[in-house]
Design brief:
Blueprint lengths: L1 H47 L11 E7 L2 E9 L3 E7 L2 E9 L5 E7 L2 E12 L2 E10 L2 E4 L6 E6 L3 E6 L6 E8 L2 E2 L4 E7 L3 E5 L2 E5 L5 E10 L6 E10 L4 E7 L1
Parallel strand pairs: 11-18
Antiparallel strand pairs: 1-2, 2-3, 3-4, 4-5, 5-6, 6-7, 7-8, 9-17, 10-18, 11-12, 11-15, 13-16, 14-15, 16-17
């Protein structure tokens, strides 16, 4: 008799524990569903509250957002449509803009303007046409110019050439060896197809250049171990206007 009571009590305790576990699981599942719904609602609200500041695409937006403005990769639409990168509510970076009238621009943007390299596709006299090149403030500047072209390179271990930007049309040359300025140079000469000679510190070159320009550098230098001398020649053609830096290393 006692065993039967004990067994009944055990079954009752087990049944109660299972009910408690089932109730807890239901509450947990309900809580997760409520949290998911609230989180999704917050995301939708944040998405709808994210603004695009460029007229024509400021009605709908999906994508990344920062401080209430489109920022990062996203898509915006209105009368027109844009897919690409944003910064502070405006197209900035790479992106594609499609006008309601049928034109398309694929390329670089800055502060809401076509700026940098890009292709504008449009219809002219019933035929598809395009402008492919450099843009500034929504205006087509011209075709993309070739990169600097090395015409001759004798006894130069390596070189670097970069456009430092700015409005100065010049080329400055530096000679390097063992990570510092090469001080063992003799018979140093720089010849240019245009411009006037100039210097900045120990850098030499030409300014007031009309591009394209040819620059030829000749000099005699010791090798890195200072065991023998040799003649070095470097010639380059630069097409794009700018403030250029040419560095030759032996």
């Amino acid at each position: 008799m006692t065993d039967r009571k004990d067994n009944s009590k055990k079954h009752l305790n087990l049944f109660t524990a299972q009910n408690k576990k089932l109730t807890l699981m239901k509450k947990l599942t309900k809580g997760i569903l409520i949290f998911t719904f609230c989180f999704a609602s917050i995301l939708v609200f944040a998405q709808n509250d994210c603004k695009v500041l460029k007229p024509g695409i400021d009605e709908n937006y999906t994508g990344k957002c920062k401080k209430g403005l489109a920022h990062g990769k996203g898509s915006a639409s209105g009368v027109d449509q844009y897919d690409g990168h944003f910064k502070k509510g405006l197209p900035d970076g790479e992106g594609t803009y499609k006008w309601a009238t049928g034109e398309t621009y694929i390329g670089d943007w800055n502060d809401g303007y076509r700026q940098g390299e890009g292709v504008f596709i449009f219809t002219l006299d019933g035929k598809e046409s395009l402008l492919d090149g450099i843009w500034a403030k929504d205006e087509f500047i011209g075709k993309k110019l070739p990169k600097p072209r090395v015409l001759q390179m004798d006894n130069v271990n390596r070189y670097s050439i970069r456009n430092a930007g700015g409005i100065l049309n010049r080329v400055l040359v530096d000679l390097k060896q063992n990570g510092s300025r090469n001080v063992s140079v003799e018979n140093y000469s720089i010849v240019s197809s245009g411009g006037t000679e100039t210097s900045q510190g120990l850098s030499r070159g030409f300014e007031n250049i009309s591009f394209p320009v040819n620059i030829m550098v000749r000099y005699t230098t010791w090798n890195e171990l200072k065991t023998y001398k040799y003649n070095a020649v470097f010639e380059v053609e630069i097409f794009e206007p700018g403030d250029w830096r040419l560095e030759l290393t032996n």
